[in-house]
Amino acid sequence: MKVYISATLRSFFGRNNSIEVSKNTIKEMLEDLTDEYPESTKILYDDEKKLRQFIQIFVDGDNRTNSKYWDVEIPDNKEVLLLPAVAGGAPVNSIIPDERRKAVFFDDAEIERFGRHLLLKDIGVKGQKRIKAARVAVVGAGALGSPVIQYLAAAGVGTIKVIDFDEVKLENLQSQVIHTSRDLNRPKVASARDKIKNINRNIKIEAENIRLEADNIVSEIDGYDIVIDCTDNFKARYLINDACVLCNIPLVFGAIYQFEGQVGIFNLEGGPCYRCQFPEPPQAGLVPSCSEGGAISPLPGIIGSIQANEALKLILGIGEHLDGKLLIIDSLYLTSRILKIKKKTDCAVCTKDAKITRVEDFDYEDFCGLREVEEEIPIEGFTPEELTKRLESGEPITIVDVREPHERAILRFPNAIVIPIGQLSRRKNELNPEQDTVFICKEGKRSVLAINTLREAGYVGRMYNLKGGLDAMKDLIFPHEGAWL
Amino acid sequence: MDEIIIDLEAYRKMETAAKDGYPHESCAILLGAGNVISDIKIIKEGAGSCMAESFYQIDPLKLYEIEKETERRSQKIIGFFHTHTFCEALLSDEDKNYMIPEMIYVVLSLTETTVNRLKGYKKETENERIKEYEVKMI
User: Which ipTM was obtained for this model?
Assistant: First the structure.
């Protein structure tokens, strides 16, 4: 058969305008062409070896691009055309409708305040009006929420809702720069509200001191233009993602861990959602949260600032977005990469036949492995008080510390055997099965995983978990032990 | 920044096509050599070609027809032109997905009253990186 090569594709086919192929089907023809012209593979197929979207195959004026035609025999006298589909669309527009923008006015003080935005051709008066008309919900007023809330307020977002159930603790001040020493023990949303007011009193602030759950999230976020996820746990991420999909609200996602951070935009105009990339959470206890694993102080500033910038770009309808992409930044080695996220055809929440149609019907606790279920062999545990008593009574007991070496450098548990969780199975012989063994970690979650790991490895000794981990115990015994550095 | 050169007469044709098509997008085939656009072939709506407010598409068979015609005239297709109405002359994800490597893509943004910005792009074959080009008129 004779194959006509479009002038736009010829540089990949030795500049030939037509090629004679001694094969009878489209499938064989494509194989023959790529064998003869290896360069053509790049233009014909994508990274997943699928025919590129713009490649079209015609036989006798009929489109035969669909692979169902590829094994059909083509008579010798027919010419096959290899042509490109030339098409395109407009970039994403502002998510703020024009009617809302037009209803916004500025006073003289606002013209002065936002002067540097007004100077930018891509923002100008129209863009600033869009920012003022925007309603943004920020979930989490912690490390990521700090820069997000402050930059949205400084940029002039008209309505900001801040949702957080927690209070400000001393350990938060290392990275949660919206709070200060004066805010200790106050609800984080109250502290955030005060900071927003200090930036701009004209902003409408809604501070919700609640924990988002399946039965309240929809009413909390419905009606907002964007939701920004600044939380630090998987249950909240899935809950927020699902609610955003069901309420049709774009989600700006952010996460940090140690030196690495991630930012992405999900659910924008039917684009992929968080579940498309992460259909299931990791096993409970396997991946420490930011509060357990730590994060370098400026990292949430970097990631949160990008989240705020992405949100503003969506409001303004300018630039390129992280829509359907995940930006991963390593602040230790200053590298970054962008993962493309494809919409999953069998996604549990964002497809036409989605299993999840109401967040209330989905068990997030169970999905994220947080429910304390009745196990076949339940894990027994000691409270910090019970363990203290046993230690003080001098009963023989083995303490196994499963934390990583750098964690132990902060707080040592006297006379504990140190076995990081990854080494437990092969080092189980170091334990005495005749003696009670208590497993300890920072929050009492990894220690449960450690017990289960040893059970699976066939260890039969009596094992106990320290409930709440060392965080719950440190005030009881350590202050006078001098274990703190 | 590397350059794309457009013959002034070809640019005027682009402007006219853009205004005539407004509020729908307009598109055309770019003719010339290397990075120099000497003429354009405007695509009219019909058969498999369509223009909407946020979408355009050229029927591959129409392109085939034009290729035959340009070859007869010893002209060369070097890329494609299209407009963005109501938004910036930036490539959308859809634009990027349909880009043929090493072809020139020129995008003109316009509103009801103003022709705003003209931008040029090319996708590289090797790493599929999209490079912006400075557009100059002669």
Answer: 0.92
